[in-house]
Amino acid sequence: MAATFWLGTLLGELALAVALGWPVAAAVGGSRIALFAACTGAFLLVQALLVLIATLLTRCAAGAPIRPLYATTIVMESIALLRAALRMSVHCGIGGEARGCTGLRGPGLLSRSAPRVVLIHGIFCNGGIWRPLVKMLHGAGFDRVTVMELQPPLADIETHASTVVARMQALQRRDGEPRAVIIAHSMGGLVARAALRAGGPAVIGRILTVGTPHHGTAIACALPFAPTRQMCPDSVWLRQLNVEQEGRLAVPFTCLYSRDDTLICPPKSAALAGARLVQIDGLGHLGLTVSPRALALLRDELLREQP
Asked: Which of these CATH numbers, 3.40.50.620, 3.40.50.1820, 2.60.40.10, 3.40.50.1220, describes 94-303?
């Protein structure tokens, strides 16, 4: 479903870019080069406008002041959106969504004590978003990486958490491995926290969240889906989760977040009391999953506790 959503989004943007670029190309001679340049420029403009609109809506929904937006942040998030959409639109072609989770092995440069790393994506996404991080983790020697697929995509967070716990327990029994480390983006971080509540430290050894709305984000309240209602700042479910966990986390916890997140407002919503906080500037919501700078921070966080 997520792959279809992103493929449809890209095709819709492409059609709009052609509709905008064709008249411009015709006005300057109508050559193939002019048509290509005009359509490419229109496509990039559409991407930037989508990011800008999403950012403004997020801030307005939160009642936050519209501070000046840096052009570089909008451009970088536009590029991140395109890269992530391309990866996620073809992800089902490698069977990731159908299997529920995909085990990927790297070169195994670390000690055999290196834990399994479980990656959990956010809402409206799939495991394709993790390809850059998987490649970097394999290069760092984390040779057992599992990409979880959240199915069905719009199920509530507790349902996703139960599925994640069951899959992780199955991996433990099959391979006789110790507790796994979870890296989760956006809503996936709340899934990881709910999974920690359900499965406990016996299954999960550590959690790293990336741009997760631990205290909600107002833009989620505008969407009529079960998981988005749970991500509202005034959600009863979210308040209860924070009462149980904030300041008393059962495992080592790291929150990576951006001050310039385009969908989480205020940005400190992605910070959890009792966790190690790693702030990065200049990256939007999807940029946190594709930027080499952000991915290197995640890799270094994992390596901090490895022999």
From this structure: 3.40.50.1820
